[in-house]
Design goal:
This protein has a single domain, classed as TIM Barrel. The strands form two sheets. Strands 1, 4, 5, 6, 7, 8, 9 and 10 form an eight-stranded parallel β-sheet that branches. The chain contains ten helices and ten strands. The chain is of the alpha/beta class. Helix 3 links the parallel strand 4 and strand 5. The longest helix has 16 residues. Helix content is 39%, strand content 17%.
Length: 248
């Protein structure tokens, strides 16, 4: 073991002694019953199971917003409390099943939105491939209205417990595209969402895929990157880590 590796390990242990981790959880679809046309199985959780898991977590953690989490990660020298953050990706219609309940529980939540789909101008390419396997004659234009929240519905969400973040104009693998396309995509998404009173400049990478160049673009645009890497957070370093807890 090199001295550099040893120092890193010691530093990590010391960090964990003085700072409780902050967990950031990612969900997609939550509904009473599973509908294969409205959710990919791996992205779905039943409403009952979701509420059960959140109430269990509430006994162990203080729920805070992702903005509060960022401030803690940037500035805390010591952290004795255990914090947890809730996020939802893609802006699915099923969110309407749980948002009122989360507000009753006084639990903040961030919705990461694909603006193009909220505008009714398309749908995730992963969903088209998935749906056509089920039904080759599926009408994606009609189905997408049942899949995604509209911008009209999102604009009406002005609860202090809700914040609206970026998930890209379209749900694409940005690690495989040119930087110009990536920047244009983020610009387009921001243009649609930035006038929302609950907008925050945080960007959740679709599928968690990114590279050094996309990171630099977000830094230049003063947008906080949000990952999907299964890690917990101790200090802020290049972005905020998340765990995906769909289908627990």
């Amino acid at each position: 073991m090199t001295l550099k590796v040893l120092i890193h390990k010691i530093s990590r242990k010391l960090l964990k002694l003085v700072l409780k981790p902050i967990r950031v959880l990612a969900f997609h679809n939550v509904s009473d019953f599973y509908d294969c046309h409205l959710s990919i199985k791996e992205d779905w959780m039943s409403t009952d199971q979701f509420k059960k898991e959140i109430l269990l977590l509430k006994k162990q953690y203080d729920f805070i917003s992702i903005v509060e989490a960022y401030k803690h990660l940037k500035h805390d020298l010591f952290r004795k409390k255990k914090f947890c953050v809730l996020t939802f990706d893609d802006g699915f219609q099923s969110l309407k099943n749980v948002l009122p309940w989360l507000e009753e529980q006084k639990i903040p939540v961030t919705l990461f939105i694909n603006a193009k789909y909220a505008l009714g101008e398309g749908w995730g390419p992963q969903y088209e491939a998935y749906e056509k396997e089920i039904d080759p004659n599926v009408n994606m234009e009609e189905l997408s209205k049942q899949l995604y929240l509209s911008m009209n519905e999102i604009n009406k969400m002005q609860s202090p417990y809700i914040t609206i973040g970026l998930h890209g104009y379209e749900h694409l693998d940005f690690s495989s595209l040119t930087i110009d396309i990536f920047k244009k995509n983020i610009d387009s998404c921001s243009t649609v969402l930035k006038n929302h009173p609950r907008y925050i400049p945080y960007m959740a990478y679709p599928w968690g895929r990114y590279n050094k160049s996309t990171q630099q673009v977000l830094k230049d645009m003063s947008i906080i990157p949000v990952f999907m890497n299964g890690d917990v957070n101790y200090k802020y370093k290049d972005g905020i880590s998340r765990e995906c807890l769909s289908s627990i």
